[in-house]
């Protein structure tokens, strides 16, 4: 685990910068910057991803299905740092039927690394490790108007919305449909069934 003192101590477990990539039953272990989900359409199913800070980051357009997001370590801990830079950009992360687990309390679902991050959690079980505010406060307050942080029919003690930051999107059925199907990553045109 990086000690926070040495520069460059964090290291990627994996970087995907190609289009039309799928990962099934994979485990990714790291601390800061575990997965660089960089560019293109990607699909993660039945995976396990572990980290501390920004452990899923980049500007990919990815669907994470039935994947466990496990947060470890101490201090500031954030799952996603999506790098969306404009409303026109076709990128974002969608977590569907996932589990957020870990140690301690106060972890954040995401933060605005760039100006227009887009992250949605749907039907996700969130344990008590999730900070009641859900999303990390933007250090640049103008990003309060440009982030898209959505939650839809999540469960568990970490999913309570009473204390969420004001820019959390409570998306409806129609809007949720665009994030929870394979159509989000144009998967019907390239995604094959998982290998046996």
From TrEMBL:
Keywords: Aspartyl esterase, Hydrolase
Gene3D superfamilies listed in its UniProt record: Single-stranded right-handed beta-helix, Pectin lyase-like
Pathway linked to the protein: Glycan metabolism; pectin degradation; 2-dehydro-3-deoxy-D-gluconate from pectin: step 1/5
InterPro entries associated with the record: Pectin_lyas_fold (IPR012334), Pectin_lyase_fold/virulence (IPR011050), Pectinesterase_cat (IPR000070)
Pfam families noted in UniProt: Pectinesterase
SUPFAM superfamilies: Pectin lyase-like (SSF51126)
Gene Ontology biological-process annotations: cell wall modification; pectin catabolic process
Keyword Nucleotidyltransferase (UniProt): no
Recorded GO MF terms: pectinesterase activity
The protein's Enzyme Commission number: 3.1.1.11
Domain Pectinesterase catalytic: 8-187
Keyword Disulfide bond attributed: no
Enzyme class: hydrolase
Protein family: Belongs to the pectinesterase family.
PANTHER family, alphabetized: ACYL-COA THIOESTER HYDROLASE YBHC-RELATED, PECTINESTERASE 63-RELATED
Protein name, UniProt field: pectinesterase
């Amino acid at each position: 685990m990086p000690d926070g003192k040495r520069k460059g101590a964090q290291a990627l477990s994996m970087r995907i910068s190609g289009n039309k990539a799928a990962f099934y039953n994979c485990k990714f272990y790291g601390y800061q910057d575990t997965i660089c989900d960089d560019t293109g359409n990607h699909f993660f199913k039945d995976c396990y991803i572990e980290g501390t800070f920004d452990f899923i980051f980049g500007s990919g357009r990815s669907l994470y299905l039935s994947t466990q997001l496990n947060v470890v370590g101490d201090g500031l801990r954030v799952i996603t740092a999506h790098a969306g830079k404009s409303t026109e950009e076709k990128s974002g992360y969608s977590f569907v039927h996932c589990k957020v687990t870990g140690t301690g309390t106060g972890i954040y679902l995401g933060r605005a690394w760039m100006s227009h991050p887009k992250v949605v959690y749907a039907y996700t079980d969130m344990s008590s490790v999730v900070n009641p505010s859900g999303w990390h406060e933007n250090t640049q307050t103008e990003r309060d108007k440009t982030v898209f942080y959505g939650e839809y029919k999540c469960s568990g003690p970490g999913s309570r919305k009473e204390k969420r930051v004001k820019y959390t999107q409570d998306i409806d059925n129609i809007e949720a449909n665009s994030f929870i199907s394979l159509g989000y990553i144009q998967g019907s045109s390239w995604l094959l069934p998982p290998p046996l």
